[in-house]
Amino acid sequence: MATAVVDQADKRQSPLSDAVVVRFAGDSGDGMQLTGGQFTLSSALAGNDFATFPDFPAEIRAPQGTLFGVSAFQINFGSSAIDTAGDAPDVLVAMNPAALKTNVPQLKQGGLIIADEGEFNDRNLAKAKYDANPLDDGSLAKWQLLKLNISQLTMDAVKPFGLGNKEALRCKNMWTLGLSLWMFDRDRQPLIDWLNAKFAKAPDLAAANVAALNAGHAYGETAELAGPLKQHHVDPAPVAPGLYRTLTGAEGIAFGLVAGAQLARLPMFFGGYPITPASAILHHLSRLKEYDVTTFQAEDEIAAICSAIGASYAGSLGVTSSSGPGIALKGEAMGLAIMTELPLVIVNSQRGGPSTGLPTKTEQSDLYQAVYGRNGDAPMPVVAARSPGDAFECAIEAVRIAVQYMTPVMLLTDGYIANAAEPWAVPDLTTYDAFPVEFLTEAPEGGFKPYGRDENLKRPWVKPGTPGLLHRIGGIEKELDTGHINYAPENHQAMTDIRKDKIDGIKVPDQVVELGAEGGKLAVVGWGSTFGPIHQAVRRKRAEGLDVSHIHIRHIWPLPANLGELLKSYDRVIVPEMNTGQLKTVLRDQYLVDAKPVNKVSGQPFTIAEIEAAIEEALK
Amino acid sequence: MNEMTTIARTTTLKDWETDQEVRWCPGCGDYAILKAVQRTMPEIGTAPENTVFISGIGCSSRFPYYMETYGFHTIHGRAPAFATGLKLANPNLDVWIVTGDGDGLSIGGNHTMHLIRRNLDCQIMLFNNEIYGLTKGQYSPTSRVGTTSPSTPYGSVDRPAQPAAFALGAGARFVARGFDVSKELPNVLKAAHAHKGAAFIEIFQNCIVYNKDVFEDFAAPKGAEDRQLWLKQGEPMIYAKGTKGIALDAEALHLKTVDVVDGDWQAAGVIVHDVTNRSVAHMLVEMRFGEFPMALGVLYDDPRPTFEADVVRQNKAAAEGKTADLQSLLKKGQTWTVTEGGPEL
Question: What is the ipTM of this complex?
Answer without folding.
Answer: 0.96
